[in-house]
Specification:
mainly alpha
């Protein structure tokens, strides 16, 4: 290329005419080489199957499904199980896959290649997924794909079954623990109610009523005791009056008293008269005292004699009536004392009962706090037990669905078929890429040659580069022999290059047709 020259379309066409073989030959060689390489590549076949996830046929409002994860997460979990080394080694051994690689390589690399490149699992539309396998034998590829689909279906069923059974066992264990805790709390609650019977908050109103009743009965007993006390005082006064002897003082001129009692009464009356008139130590007063003493002793002797067996005292009618009245009053007083004793005992009992009921009333707030804590624990465990029982029943229903296979299942929509044409390599694309590479290589070669070529091809090139006017142009002078040799030489080179280009194009065409 000449510096400072602006190339036009005619210049570019001139360059192509001069160096057309530098474009065609690399183009043909590179295209033929790529075609030959592509032809040597082994044919790889791909078989695929479409699996649909069929939801459970019982509405979710009736039976809650045990599996709630998305299809992507579930496929990821099942994929890890199916594509484990153990499973893939079993498939490789069963279908005799990769025989050449197994002879020269190690199993770990073969399993990794099969997992990463040959097996593909893709989710389609959210409710189905596609499984595909790539291999060199179409029949084997179809069989391996069918086996992978069956493994996915079987693993899904087993996974759902294990999940439902595991959920059922877990809930069963939790339910048993909750039942044991509930029984323990019920036992503590029953023991607490038994130990604090009468002090519970539910008995507070009854205790208050009992306190009021006891206080009212105490007041009634106190009033009754006051009335009894007044009555006893009256009876004692009547008894004292009844016990006072009947004193009959004889009138002047009458006969002297005859009985000892009458004499004692007269002597006591006279002693009282003397005590009122005389000072202590007066002879008449002392004589009167001795007379009263002697008469009292005499009265006691007569009473003792009368009390001896066989002795019958002789009482006057008035004395007999007085003795009967005394006896009745003493009996009434004794009965009244017994009643008062019983009432005092009842009063003590009522006082103790009132104190007990009051103690229960005072203890009610503490019992309410303790009982609230126990009741709260009982309610919490009762609610938990009810919730676990409901979940256990749901899990049992879900397990029955999985057992009868009417829950969520996998169904083959498109079974694996034997492929009729290779999946790879894509020879059309590879050969097209070879043609493009050959054309690019030839173009690059022409550009390189033109860049290194500093010669003038026309008088315009000299004028532009040298900036001098062209006076004359000397044409190329050749003899006839030189011209003939040049023609044959160009003809031979053109024939050779043309044959090379045609051969390359033929190879490319054969590869494309095959």
């Amino acid at each position: 290329m000449l510096p400072g020259k602006a190339y036009t379309v005619d210049d570019i066409l001139g360059i192509l005419r001069r160096r057309i073989w530098w474009l065609l030959v690399p183009f043909a060689v590179v295209a033929a080489g790529v075609a030959g390489f592509v032809r040597q590549l082994p044919d790889m076949y791909r078989s695929e199957t479409l699996v649909q996830i069929v939801p459970q046929r019982v509405p979710d409002s009736y039976v809650r499904p045990v599996v709630t994860t998305s299809i992507g997460d579930r496929l990821q979990s099942i994929r890890q199980q199916i594509l484990s080394r153990t499973r893939l080694e079993q498939l490789i051994t069963e279908f005799n896959l990769y025989p050449e690689q197994r002879r020269t390589g190690i199993m770990e690399d073969i399993v990794e290649r099969m997992r990463e490149h040959d097996i593909q699992i893709d989710v389609v539309n959210g409710d189905s997924f596609r499984i595909s396998y790539i291999g060199s034998d179409p029949n084997t590829v179809a069989k391996v794909t069918a086996r992978l689909a069956s493994l996915f279906i079987g693993e899904s069923l087993q996974d759902r079954k294990n999940l439902s059974e595991g959920t059922n066992d877990f809930l069963e264990q939790q339910l048993t623990n909750a039942h044991e805790q509930l029984q323990q709390i019920e036992g503590r609650l029953a023991a607490y109610n038994q130990a604090h019977a009468g002090e519970l908050p539910s008995q507070l109103n009854a205790n208050l009523q009992q306190v009021q009743n006891a206080q009212l009965q105490q007041q009634q007993l106190a009033d009754s005791l006051n009335r009894d006390q007044d009555m006893r005082i009256e009876l004692e006064r009547q008894l004292a009056q009844a016990r006072a002897p009947i004193v009959t003082v004889p009138a002047p001129g009458n006969a002297a008293p005859t009985s000892t009692a009458q004499q004692l009464a007269v002597a006591r009356a006279q002693l009282a008269d003397y005590e009122a008139r005389y000072k202590p130590g007066h002879p008449d007063l002392e004589a009167a005292r001795r007379a009263v003493h002697d008469l009292e002793q005499k009265a006691r002797d007569e009473a003792a004699a009368a009390a001896q067996p066989g002795a019958t005292p002789i009482l006057s009618p008035a004395e007999a009536e007085r003795q009967r009245q005394i006896s009745n009053l003493q009996a009434s007083i004794a009965e009244l004392d017994r009643q008062m004793t019983r009432k005092r005992a009842d009063q003590d009992q009522l006082r103790a009962a009132a104190a007990e009921y009051q103690r229960r009333v005072d203890a009610a707030p503490n019992r309410e706090a303790e009982l609230t804590e126990l009741t709260r624990d009982y309610k919490n465990w009762s609610d938990r037990y009810s919730s676990l029982l409901s979940k256990k029943e749901d899990a049992q229903l879900a397990a029955n669905l999985e057992t009868r296979q009417i829950g969520e299942t996998f169904r083959l929509l498109d079974p694996a078929q034997v492929p009729e044409r290779p999946y790879s390599p894509n020879r059309l694309k590879l050969n097209a890429a070879g043609l493009g590479a050959g054309l690019a290589f030839g173009t690059a070669l022409i550009l390189l040659l033109e860049y290194r070529d500093q010669t003038f091809k026309t008088d315009d090139d000299a004028r532009i580069v040298l900036d001098l006017p062209v006076i004359a142009v000397v044409p190329l002078m050749q003899s006839d022999a030189d011209r003939r040799r040049g023609v044959w030489r160009r003809l031979a080179v053109g024939t050779l290059l043309g044959t090379t280009v045609l051969a390359g194009l033929a190879v490319v065409a054969y590869t494309l047709v095959r």
